[in-house]
Amino acid sequence: MIDLIEVFDRAETGPLTSETDYYMKRFVPKLTEVIGRHGVKWDKQTIINTDDALTDAVFEAAVDLIAEAGAYCPETNRVMQFTREEIEIANRECPTSATFGEGRERKTMYGRRPDTTDDRPWVHVGGGIYTTDEQVYVDTVEKMASYNIVDSVSVPSILHLRGKDARVRSPQEILAATKTVRLAREGIRRSGRAGMPIINGISAASQPASMFAASYPDFGLRPSDGFLIDFLSEMVVGYEALQKVAFYNSISANIGSTSTPLFGGYAGGAEGVAVQATAYMIMGNLIFRGSYHYNAPLHSKLHLSSTKPLIWAIAMSNAAIGRNMQYPMVNLPYLGGGSGTKQYHYEMACYMLAVVTSGGNVFSGHPAMAVQPDSLVPDDHKFHAEMGLAAAKLTRAEAEPIAQKLFPLFGDKLKDPDKGLTFQEVYDMQTKRIKNAEYQKVMDDVREELAGMGLEVPVS
What we know:
- This protein has a domain at 97-337: TIM Barrel, CATH 3.20.20.
- Helix 5 (134-146) packs across helix 6.
- The chain has helices at 4-13, 19-37, 52-69, 84-92, 134-146, 171-190, 208-214, 239-250, 270-286, 308-324, 342-357, 378-391, 396-406, 423-426, 437-453; strands at residues 71-73, 78-80, 97-100, 107-110, 123-126, 152-154, 160-161, 164-165, 226-230, 254-259, 262-263, 292-295, 298-299, 329-331, 362-363.
- It is 44% helix and 11% strand.
- The protein starts with a helix and ends in a 7-residue tail after the last helix.
- It is of the alpha/beta class.
């Protein structure tokens, strides 16, 4: 595989072009061309693809897209070009496992193949949702980390200092980022699992300086945690991302390559998102030297992941990578329904059935498009992790009819989702036990409904 310095040089030596010309004359025409060349087509009915020939066609289209369109560096206005041979060598040398955590919490996430029913996928819970109160923040992290089925957590963000939020890219943001890590580690320590990894880097950090500050050992992030580095939509590799690549590779940290291809944007529809999401995972290894990938395709107008074409595309990208590379991945869903609602649970069950059977690991999702403060309710995430483990016992063909039963229960609500609850509305703030009887009833009812559809979700 080409070395990192050579990767960085490609951002300075590739063909010079404007951003508009890159998209209009290079990326969009090539994406359309490779989709047609390889016969990638969604039938508009299927939620979970079971055709392995189509899956492999998506993978080959993604390789062609990288080789023929390249990535774009906006700071230099140059195209980062890679030959097909360089891409194929990187694919062969791709990591198939990533180890996180310390002490007895040190565990390994593996890349999975579709239709694998005899393994236990990695279980990751949480999200970078904004939290308004330090005590709620610590209690949220503690509760998530305390669940025995959980292997790693994403921690929320808390940006306020002295009564007001830190401005993005300000000196105060660095203080907010380090504060976030300290509070998160305290919550994990209180759970009795001090070695548990945080693998969403730090959601309070918008710039490399904040990420690097939060990585200082006294604040609590460790190389055995996971640090997210984002591709920008679409195919943009900026200097800030490459600065993080240089730093985290220098300290031998786990890098989580991260991508959010946009449905309805330059990536187009279901077929384009499937190819684009697959290409990002290939590039995560090739350009970022990732240990694992955060796969987070999103609808450009609805700002969620649970439309039928998106679920198909996300699952397809999982299967394409699982069959051809086995790069470890989790899928980050942004869902419409608010915390504690039936809609949220239905969306998550449908999503888990698609991505886990297609080769993904388990990741509980963001409620309410991740915009409602304090909406990270740990018992939701435990329930959704249990759904993921239940889905892992099924093949794609077994999961598809259940997903088809679930989708009508939430599909018509995605433009106007059900409003949900906050941490404070669900839990007694002294005992941290569920005080909201209706919240518990909704969860119990959905668990029973899922069993009736063929998805048994045992309580852990």
